[in-house]
Amino acid sequence: MYYAQMRKYDIANGPGIRSVLFVSGCTHNCPGCFNKDYQDFKAGNPWSEEAEATFMSYVHDPNVHGVTILGGEPMQQTRDNDLLHLLQRIKLETNHTIWLFSGYVFEEIIKDEARLTLLKQCDVLVDGPFIETEKDIQLKFRGSRNQRIIDVPASLKSKQIVLLEL
Q1: 3-state SS class at 54
Q2: DSSP SS3 for 104
Q3: Are the CB atoms for 19 and 7 separated by under 8 Å?
Q4: pLDDT tens digits for 94-114?
Q5: What residues does each domain of the chain span?
Q6: For residue 93, what are the CA distances in angstroms to 51, 66, 89?
Q7: Which H or E run includes 52?
Q8: pLDDT at residue 1 tops 80
Q9: How far apart are CA 87 and CA 82, in angstroms?
Q10: What CA–CA distance (Å, rounded) separates 87 from 118?
Q11: Does the pLDDT at position 35 exceed 90?
């Protein structure tokens, strides 16, 4: 896995102060994408033990209350287990919620075993591709009206989409 950026503190990609990781690589190529540079799977830096240690130090900061993974496309980080291991470590070592943004919709993700494995580590999924004609700058934590903010554990348990009320 490569990553394009990590932020110790972020308030734009989920509630509260969050540590955020932007992974590299995405094949969706959504018109109007705000992270075109992150579509290249080799953009940024290769994930390493040092990068993970740095990010985990951010996650363990007492001011941080959650983690967000976006990109690029996190659900295309299945060529290796770097992202899965990171998510598992965050779950093991913290009580932080994990938000993940994906251009795939929930219904697509659960049909793919590797993506479902990633999803099961997450608390919230913001799903769906960015659609420029659906763009709405007044939306909280998403760019277009088609995107949903999904409570992952509740949705997996009930086998139907449960939207998160913010």
Answers
A1: helix
A2: coil
A3: yes
A4: 999 999 999 999 999 999 999
A5: 2-158
A6: 17, 12, 6
A7: helix 49-59
A8: yes
A9: 9
A10: 8
A11: no
